[in-house]
Amino acid sequence: MVCDVMAAPSLPSLPVHRSVPARAAGERERRPRTRRRLGRTLSRARWREYGRLLEMAVEHGYHVVSLETWLADADASASGPVLILRHDVDQYPASALRMAAIEARLGIRSTWYFRWRTADPYVVSAIREAGHDVGLHYESLSRELLRSGLTAAQAPTLLVRARALLREELAAFSERHGPVRSSCPHGDTRIPGVHNGVLLQGENVADYGIEWDANAAVGRAPLDVWLTDRSSAEGRWKEELDPIDLLIDRRSPILAVVHPNNWVSGAALWCDRIAPGRHGTADSDEPPLGRSALRRVAAAG
To answer: pTM above 0.90?
Structure first.
């Protein structure tokens, strides 16, 4: 079984949408599904689908920008509709290279958030060198709760320690991967009801060495649509939103939160879980903190 997507082979030319047929007022375009709803394990890769989506955005006059670019100046693209790209690399870091290659072909840049278990040095470096933004997809609170054997209801007892830990993690991430301007909380399904984003609520993010915490910053911005992907087996997009309809209707600004692992084949994802090769998901989500950093965390909590 071949699982490595690191090489990111070039894709064939994709069709360009030259025109959009007129529709009656209130009528929604109906498109047949191009893929059966198979189980995730049997699902095929969706790279061409992603390429077509971005091509259609460009053809419909969208400014496709990274999340950090938009947060820095939300009015910079006011002359037309805006599609904002953010990627959360939850699993299979090599899949980020394939997705980034598609964006590179179209001259598009985006913002990428890596967990510690997916922050493969080669992958993060390649993404940054391609001109994208990178940051930490942190899970400091949920990881500490799991380590301590505590429940979601006991999360407040760990806030001080987890905040100190997050401060050290952000510093360590910057030291290993270069300066970062933003971070983003990871939604940890291992412990429902716990939101890592609470760590920076009410905090001065500059004290953590960043300019923005992604979710909080977007919540304060003039966003029209928050669009989050799913795997093909789960219906492709949350809340049954259809990005093609949104583009045709010229909704703006649209934030697309895209997880590269949702677009790989089920076989490749299982291979990464069972026998990860080069640039695969690491076994541990522990941050690489030194003794001095750990002492500072212990003193805080």
So the answer is: no
